[in-house]
Design goal:
9 helices, six-stranded mixed beta sheet, five-stranded antiparallel beta sheet, alpha/beta, globular, single chain
């Protein structure tokens, strides 16, 4: 059984059709990279999966539970529990500037998971240790580099213990020299077989980490396959044209 399965997902903003019937599935422990040009619908698709954008049409099943059927959302409480199995890391960190690193990480577990502060603080410290920022728990976001802020954002998402973690171009706001430290954290999560969906423009990273690569353009999936199939053996002319510009 797939951890998440989407069929015919459609999304429009006014008359502009962004997603034109996306089919997608991911199994437990799988890492999928989604690549494609800007404006192809990649970020909108991720936001639709985690209920930050409402789907206009199609079906969405999370861990065996149907949350959207023919574009109709199921009961709010049931759907919310399913959507809570997903976590997301955004392009621009979205940390609270007036809260310390530690407070940023524990806020969601305490407020949404009803975890006590006594339970949340050790969890946050363990996550900070895993991302190499144990010495920054009392720092504020403005005192951190972009790479450090993004690592804190990853720890914040992990604190909610999601079954699937979505990344929306996690290095796009970073200077190239800071990209590696964020990719190293994501690589470790993949090696630990966490279920990951990564929208990325880092082609080498996608080729290295992903079990499967999806190429999107103009709101549709143009191609899906192993990294070798997509990057080295593609027969799709649109994929070839895109890769020739970015590799």
């Amino acid at each position: 059984m797939y951890m998440l399965e989407a069929k015919g997902i459609k999304k429009s903003f006014g008359k502009l059709e962004i997603l034109k019937g996306i089919d997608f599935s991911i199994a437990r422990g799988e890492s999928i990279a989604i690549i494609g040009p800007s404006g192809s619908g990649k970020s909108t698709f991720l936001r639709s999966l985690i209920n930050l954008e409402k789907i206009d049409g199609g079906d969405l099943v999370i861990d065996g539970q149907t949350v959207v059927e023919n574009g109709v959302y199921q009961k709010a409480d049931e759907a919310k529990a399913a959507f809570n199995k997903l976590g997301m890391v955004f392009q621009n960190f979205n940390l609270f500037p007036h809260k310390s690193v530690l407070e940023n990480i524990i806020l969601a577990p305490v407020t949404t998971k009803k975890m006590t502060r006594e339970e949340a603080v050790p969890l946050a410290r363990e996550l900070l240790s895993q991302i190499g920022l144990s010495d920054k728990e009392n720092a504020y976001p403005y005192q951190l580099s972009g790479g450090q802020q993004q690592r804190v954002a990853i720890a914040r998402a992990l604190a909610l213990k999601p079954d699937i973690l979505l990344f929306d171009e996690p290095t796009s706001a970073l200077d190239p020299e800071l990209t590696g430290e964020v990719l190293a954290v994501i690589r470790r999560l993949s090696e630990e077989h966490m279920t990951l969906v990564i929208v990325t423009h880092e082609m080498g990273f996608a080729k290295e980490v992903a079990n499967r690569v999806i190429f999107m353009d103009e709101g549709v999936v143009m191609e899906s396959g192993t990294p070798e199939e997509v990057f080295e053996q593609t027969k799709n002319e649109r994929t070839k044209a895109f890769l020739s510009k970015v590799l």
